[in-house]
Amino acid sequence: MKTYKTLEGFFKAATKDKTYNSLRICDILNHNIFYDKKNYKPIKFELKGKAIEQFADLVSKCLYTGKSARLEISNAIINGCNDKDEYLQCFYLDKHNDIFYISNSLSGEAFEYCRRKFYKTL
After folding, report:
1. pTM, to two decimals
2. Dist CA 110 CA 75 (whole Å)
3. Angle between the 67-79 and 50-63 helix axes, to the nearest 10 degrees?
4. Which of 102, 110, 47, 107 shows the shortest CA–CA distance to 79?
5. Rounded-to-integer distance, Cα 7 and Cα 14, Å
6. What is the pLDDT of residues 43-96, one digit of tens each?
7. What phi and psi, each to the nearest 5 degrees, are found at residue 106?
8. What is the C-alpha to C-alpha distance for residues 74 and 65, in angstroms, rounded to an integer?
């Protein structure tokens, strides 16, 4: 199992062989980023320490502005909410000018729907 202590190191390793610099949030939560090229099976990885805290903070700030809701989402991500990610399929971890951010490809109404449904599953 690969372990990453910084979001920078994880992002660099995950986008090394790709032509784009976006990672789906649901793939990160399900650990479906790295694949064994012989068996086509996912290679498990884990974000630790500062990396998981920074990732959880980015996702929670994208979804909610209220402090208590952000804290609840951050704790859920840090403690593993892998089975509740179907509502985060259109959210991406991106990097531009050495700054990480979460983007999405949803309209306002669809964003609100996914946000509410994800929060209800926690």
Report:
1. 0.85
2. 24
3. 140
4. 47
5. 10
6. 888 899 999 999 999 999 999 888 888 998 888 888 877 556 778 888 999 998
7. -110, 155
8. 12
Domain count, the chain: 1
Whole-number Å distance between alpha carbons of 25 and 31: 10
Length of the chain measured in residues: 122
Half-sphere exposure of 50 (CA within 13 A, CB side): 6
Structural domain including 65 reads 2-121
What values do phi and psi take at 92, rounded to 5? -130, 145
For residue 25, count other CB atoms closer than 10 A to its CB: 24
* Residues 25 and 36 sit within 8 Å (Cβ to Cβ): no
Strands 34-35 and 42-43: antiparallel
